[in-house]
Write a structure and sequence with these properties.
Elements lengths: L2 H22 L23 H27 L2 E8 L2 E6 L2 E5 L1 H29 L9
Helix pairs in contact: 2-3
Keywords: Membrane, Transmembrane, Transmembrane helix
Protein name: Transmembrane protein
Organism: Chthoniobacter flavus Ellin428
Length: about 140
Amino acid sequence: MPMNDDSEAAAKLSKAVHDIEALLHPPIAQPATTQPAPLAIPAPSGSKVNRFCSIVFIVAIVNFVAFLIGASVLRGDAVNGKTEAGRYYVADHGKLTEVSKAAFTYSRFHYYTLWVTHPMAMICALVCYVPKQSKRTK
């Protein structure tokens, strides 16, 4: 066989392989415009609402960490504890530790502040951090 026929056959075979690969693995269509995924925490802007939400989040986190540290130092919290015969006990997993009245009052007050800061942080998350749904046009 002449050299010309071999190169033509190789070119035809290469084109056939390419066409078969294109049929087996079609290109994935990309949308015309793509928007980046929304961030969990928005970039800082001058919005007063975003600043307020950021402050509430920081306060809620600091309050929770302070509660954990306080409960660790006292070896429990007052809500799970009890008062008995003028003595004050904090509890952690059923284990009671005697504390002063001031420590007991602090622990109980700090526990109830969590019931204020956590819902405020959740509301701020809904208002500021959940991506807004765009209205669909029909």
